[in-house]
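DM between two lab members

TW: hey, do you still have the Transmembrane protein entry open?
JB: yeah, one sec
JB: this one, 366 aa:
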Amino acid sequence: MSNWMDLLERAKSTDPQPFAVYLQGLRSQWSLDERAEASARVLQALRARQAPMNLSEAAALYQAFGWDDAGCGLAPGELRELAEHAWQDWLQLPAQTDLLAQQMEARGGRWTSHDDAASRLQQLREPRSHLRNLMSALPLRVPRQAAALMDVLGCQEDRPLPPGIDAGQARFWAGASDVTRLTAAQLSLLRALLASVALTLMAFIALATTQIANTLLPYQSEEQRRAIVLGTAALAPLLGTLLAIGLRHLFVWQSAPEDPSVPPSRLRWLALPVACAAIAVVGTAVYLWVPSPSLWLAPLCWLLAWTVLATAWIRYQLRRGKPVRMELPVSFLMMLSVLSVLPALLGALLLWSMDLSGHRQRLRRS
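TW: and the structure you got?
JB:
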């Protein structure tokens, strides 16, 4: 019988109201046997993910066939899951790309246009080499959009992938959007390498056309100034990226759940005192033996000290049974950084107001 096939085609392309009217017409034409056969065929197509449709069409279909979890022998929640899968497959249709872009924006894929949604969907479907994937993921918005698309389509590691989605592509984009994965670290290093090349080129042009190096480094020779400027431009993005990757993995390592029945790792327990001792030793050694370290020693020690403090806070929260996400220690670190600067700013404003008040009093006396 072709009626059930026509029904699925209409469910894929018809607005909800005309589809409900169409279903009512079919119900009046079907005999009991025809209705039972159509019900079995449609249910089979839904289970095989060969019946894309909107949630409204799925609800009308369920009502027309009188389906519920108990009435048609399905597992609890299976009808809802089948409707969600049908809706996710329906969003992959070319006619629904605009709606797919809206859903991606709602899931965190910022500024997703029609072309962006179509491009991300094509990237998930088409097998590509790892290098090509890395190059296409260089813009920061691309991994976020891919993660939003995978969330909309229900691409999860512990569940079967939707039809048409390549497993290798799904694995790559899941890793590219997770800062704790190796793929995300590779992306960060590749971006840092490109930034190093661009900054080195800009520094070389600045050295050749301006006197900014003489102004910033007046006491060094020409060769030293060139080496410092070019070396900083080339190494700063790479070293900063490596530091950021290290901090991410430190947070993940320290916030990993522990089994109470297993003895704690000595390395995790000794990480904090060893880090504190290393900061103290390195800071003292640099202060004693490195000439003029004040320009960079203070910011470095400040960063390391707050990192150790945030790590200690993670461990303390874990011992109290409160798991910590990575965003929380970063926010905590920024909050403490602001609080450490705030007293200096308040002190400066207080001294400024006292100076202004004293100056006004002297003007009145004169």
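TW: got it. The chain has a mean pLDDT of 81. Residues 189-256 form one domain.
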